[in-house]
Design a protein that fits this description.
Blueprint lengths: L1 H17 L9 E5 L3 E3 L16 E4 L4 E4 L7 H4 L3 E7 L4 E3 L1 H10 L4 E7 L4 E3 L9 E7 L2 E3 L8 H5 L6 E5 L2 E5 H10 L1 H7 L10 E5 L2 E5 L6 H17 L3 E2 L5 E5 L4 H12 L1 E2 L5 E3 L17 H4 L5 E3 L21 E3 L10 H10 L3 E3 L5 E2 L5 H7 L5 H4 L9 E3 L16 H30 L1 H12 L21 E6 L5 H12 L7 E2 L1 H4 L6 H10 L1 E8 L1 H4 L2 H17 L4 E5 L10 H9 L3 E2 L5 H10 L16 H16 L1
Parallel strand pairs: 5-7, 6-8, 7-9, 8-10, 9-11, 10-12, 11-13, 12-14, 13-16, 15-17, 16-18, 18-19, 19-20, 20-21, 22-23, 24-25, 24-26, 26-27, 27-28
Antiparallel strand pairs: 1-2, 1-5, 3-4
Helix pairs in contact: 14-21, 17-19
Length: 646
């Protein structure tokens, strides 16, 4: 009895030692033709057989199979192994799990599908090496470590086996520290051992609706970033050109940022694709065709290319001008772009590109004078080139509104818009010219009034600009701005005028009989002294003025002062109801020679202020300057020059 028990125990131990129980991969389920194994998260190794559910649907190959017994290890060793991983929200998953599993248990093609819930992370790493790994599909994940390289000798000795790589609806996250390590610390080794961005064994590369994100996980100084920029440039210059011998399908589509577009263009620039059949860069926000695709040597890097899909971008020109070699047929899909007009160079490119064909469907054509060459091309009836673009005969005008819905091929009067624009310009410009002519006449006719108003308005208290007026050197030491000569019978009107002048923003200093005549001195001496101490003499001319001998004396002294200083010293103000026939001969001569002001004039105060300001000292002690900065003074001078011109 004891011998029998011992025999059973030994047999079980031998079974456990020899039976291969698969290593568990966190968050993953292994599926193959023979069985299904549930990979838990908590433990690395299974201690018993997996539950046999009886039936499994292989979603990868669409094969429904009946499970073999759990201890039949040959079933999954001899068929394709499909590993499906679901990364829960906020969890992280590492590609090294796959590498470890395949290095121990992989014997056939391994297909890995990774799907993430929101904020699920996948650490991918370079290079993508795992025994028997044939296909890797990543969906809705935050992918980290794409420029973090495993430089171990064990990994370097391992061969690439991956043939298909798809990253869909994901974010590729690049950390600042990863960039620093790649280009600063490991640039030489990266360039030597893994110069290519993707594994060279790939037959299909698909990056669809995938966006690059850059995160600063470590801060560097400006000098560090300058050094890093130099290292990146040096790396890009020295890195050898990659040759993707097995690549047949390449897709960068649904790109949501122009930065990714630039990155993918760099990838195209640094590589060759001797067997590539399809290049899909649709919905990638491209505003132009990638430069490598329309150079005269493009066929050397893409000798077997059959389809270039650039649809649903923002391209505005047909840049393909060099035909495929050996008469090879090549289709370029430029449908649903921003092509609106085909100019003569673009049409010539269509001819030169034959037998290559460009698909122009779905573009919004504008039917105007610039479209004549395109219409002429569509109306050609013979030729193999034209035959391939017969479908464009169904293209319709999208603009202008007057031609909306018409066939481009049958469009007529394409230059009518140009005529309409010319007429519109004529209708607008002619009235403007007439208006400018009348404005010029007004400026010339009323130039003095305009000059006066501009000056007085720009030197008001609330003005933003102060207009300086040239000051005569003879007037610098004058005590008063004006001596007011008037008859005592008119003093009510005169006092009101003086109050307005003294309390105005200009703050004129006026010399008046009752304020500034020296008591006891001779009246004539007071008159002469007041005239000489003032820059101007305001003579209020009225019938009462002519009856006063002292007023006449004041006039003659002021007139004499004007002649002596060769300046317009005397300012004559004529009150209402004054008849010029009452004047004496010397006064008549003065009024004929000099301009006088009428108190009834609508702009009387403006003209008087302007006349008194012509030779007034403009220093900060006597006049309030508004705008004292250098810039404001320059603006004032510029404005003053305009006023003088007027």
């Amino acid at each position: 009895m004891y011998k029998w028990v011992a025999f059973v125990v030994v047999a079980e131990l031998l079974c456990l030692a020899t039976c291969q129980i698969p290593l568990q991969i966190p968050s993953c389920t292994l599926m193959n033709i023979g069985r299904t194994l549930d990979m838990g998260r908590s433990t690395l190794y299974s201690t018993g057989p997996a539950m046999d559910t009886g039936r499994t649907v292989d979603t990868t190959h669409r094969i429904e199979t009946v499970h073999r017994p759990a201890n039949d290890n040959k079933s999954w060793q001899s068929s394709d192994i499909n590993i499906n991983c679901l990364i829960k929200e906020g969890d992280s998953w590492d590609f090294s799990f796959i590498s470890r599993w395949t290095s121990t248990y992989g014997t056939g093609p391994v297909h890995v599908t990774i799907t993430c819930e929101p904020r699920g992370r996948v650490y991918l790493g370079r290079p993508l090496k795992a025994r028997y790994l044939e296909r890797l599909y990543i969906n809705s994940c935050d992918v980290y470590g794409t420029i973090t390289t495993d430089l171990s000798e064990e990994t370097r000795k391992m061969n690439y086996t991956i043939g298909q790589l798809t990253i869909d609806n994901s974010f590729i996250v690049i950390l600042a520290s990863d960039i620093w390590n790649f280009y600063m610390d490991n640039a030489k080794n990266n360039r030597e051992y893994y110069p290519c961005k993707f594994p060279p064994t790939l037959q299909s590369i698909i990056l669809r609706n995938t966006t690059y994100r850059y995160k600063v996980d470590q801060y560097y100084s400006k000098s560090d970033y300058a050094t890093l920029s130099e290292k990146i440039d040096d790396y890009n210059i020295k890195v050898p050109q990659c040759i993707y011998t097995d690549l047949v399908y390449l897709e960068f589509s649904k790109i949501n940022d122009s930065i990714e577009t630039d990155l993918y263009e760099q990838f195209l620039l640094k590589s060759r694709y001797p067997h590539l059949k399809v290049l899909n860069i649709s919905r990638a926000l491209l505003s132009r065709t990638p430069g490598k695709l329309f150079t005269h040597m493009w066929d050397v890097d893409f000798p077997e290319l059959e389809l270039i899909d650039l649809s649903h971008n923002r391209i505005t020109d047909v840049d393909f001008a060099y035909a495929p070699r050996k008469g090879r047929r090549l289709l370029v899909n430029l449908s649903n772009n921003h092509l609106t007009i085909l100019h003569k160079p673009s049409i010539q490119n269509l001819r030169s590109f034959y037998p290559g064909i460009v698909d122009l469907r779905g573009n919004q054509w504008v039917c105007n004078c610039s479209q004549q060459d395109f219409v002429q091309f569509l109306q050609e009836e013979e030729g193999a080139i034209v035959d391939h673009y017969v479908y464009l005969g169904e293209a319709k005008c999208s603009r202008p509104v007057s031609m909306l819905g018409q066939y481009v091929k049958d469009a007529k009067d394409l230059c009518s818009d140009k005529k309409q624009i010319s007429q519109l310009i004529l209708y607008i410009c002619l009235p403007l010219l007439i208006l400018c002519f009348f404005v010029l006449i007004i400026l010339v006719r009323f130039r003095r009034e305009i000059r006066v108003l501009v000056y007085t308005r720009f030197t008001s208290v609330n003005s933003c600009v102060f207009l300086p007026v040239p000051t005569s050197s003879k007037d610098i030491e004058k005590d008063f701005d004006a001596f007011v000569s008037y008859s005592s019978h008119d003093e009510t009107w005169v006092f009101d005028l003086c109050k307005r002048l003294e309390e105005s923003a200009h703050g004129f200093r006026l010399c008046l009989h009752h304020k500034h005549f020296v008591p006891g001195a001779c009246i004539s001496d007071n008159i002469i002294d007041s005239v000489e101490r003032s820059r101007h003499t305001i003579m209020v001319l009225s019938p009462n003025f002519l009856k006063s001998e002292w007023c006449i004396l004041e006039f003659r002294k002021a007139f004499h002062q004007s002649l002596m200083e060769n300046e317009r010293h005397l300012v004559v103000v004529m009150l209402e109801g004054f008849d010029e026939s009452w004047l004496q001969s010397d006064m008549k001569h003065f009024l004929k020679t000099y301009t006088y002001l009428k108190a009834s004039d609508f702009f009387f105060m403006d003209k008087l202020v302007y006349a008194l300001s012509k030779h007034r000292e403009n220093d900060s002690k006597k006049v309030h300057h508004i705008g004292t900065s250098v810039q404001e003074q320059q603006s004032s001078k510029a404005l003053l020059s305009v006023v003088k011109t007027v």
